Amino acid sequence: MPSKPDLSIKESQGRKNKKPRKWVRRTGLSLLAVIFLGVVIFMLIPSPVQPAKWLAPSAPSFEQAGPWQQNNKLSSAELVTDAPKFPEFITFDKEGTLYTGDSDGKIYKVAFDGKGNPQKAQLYADTKGTPNGLMFDASGNLIVTDVQKGLLSVDPSGNVTVLADQVDGTPIYLANELDIAKDGTIYFSDTSNYGRVTFKEIAENKPHGRLLKYDPATKQTTVMLEGLYFANGVALSADEDFVLVAESYHYQLTRYWLKGPKKGTSDIFADNLAGFPDNITRDYQGHFWVGLFTTRIPFVDQMHGSPWLAGMMAKLPQSLLSGASAPVKHGLAVELNSQGKLIGSWHDPAGSLYGVTTAVNHDGYLYIGTAPGGSQGVHRVLLTK
Questions:
Q1: Least C-beta-crowded within 10 Å: which of 3, 228, 358, 369?
Q2: Does the pLDDT at position 48 exceed 90?
Q3: 53: enclosing H helix or E strand
Q4: Do 121 and 84 form a contact (C-beta atoms < 8 A)?
Q5: CA torsion, ordered 178, 181, 186, 191, to nearest 10 deg
Q6: Would you indicate the residue range of the signal peptide (predicted)?
Q7: Cα distance between residue 145 and residue 101, in whole Å
Q8: pTM of the predicted protein model
């Protein structure tokens, strides 16, 4: 006759099995309570900014025929030098030597041989800051806009002098890019009184940038234009009747009139660009080349239409938002004529060259610079007619 099961043992095992289940259930409920409480606290914390609503225009399509249509013109880019990791801006001296800065403060120069082949990069100077804009004045000094130091002058021996770090009793918060007129006047951008690039400013969607002017004769700096949405690239027209400044966060180029009946006023030169315009350069035809650091980010455009969402995003730590504002891996530069009409766009849809800040038309090549977050080194592509 089979033995009867020991019910006391089963009951004991049942009690033991119930204990882990209760512990898991209680732990899960506790975690949910903590998460819920954290969400409530996050929602109740005031946002550090009061965002302004903006209905961003629909981005141009890369699929439709026209000047924005996608191509592979940048995909064949060759490396000129990888000495500077992030060559924000590129300029040339009268002999055709290339100069560019890096985010660690160093400025390099690259000579070319008789066949146009780049030689090994050489260290030219060190600003101990972050040099962005570079251009030679009539005396052979390299004028530099340094985001940490202000407006600088570097003599041929590499000695660095501060020309301006204040205007009207306030700091020059983030000197970014420049151009120099024939009379020596320097026009340059002060990107934002935030003093650094931060997602909070994108979320806030309010203008904090300025266009400044430095007079080398009087050594005085004045404000030309205020209320710019992340003031960036700067370029004079061929006749110097106006100066352009890029407003990166509103996808547009603004024109400030220096001569003529509109002198002292501003208007929009080009708008609804397909990305965030960075630097502007002018070529021998009087055309403007613009590097677009990233193509449009749909989430950012949607966020601008919802101040509540933008305010929530601004609460998050910058470290968590770096991915949200990282450049799309799609290289892009554009050419505009002197009236602001888009002539054509240059793409690398594969993203081997991206985070484009500068496009310089020089001696049959288009030279490309980038910034942190993008690809590294100076590149160039052959310009074809």
A1: 3
A2: no
A3: none
A4: yes
A5: -30
A6: none
A7: 10
A8: 0.89
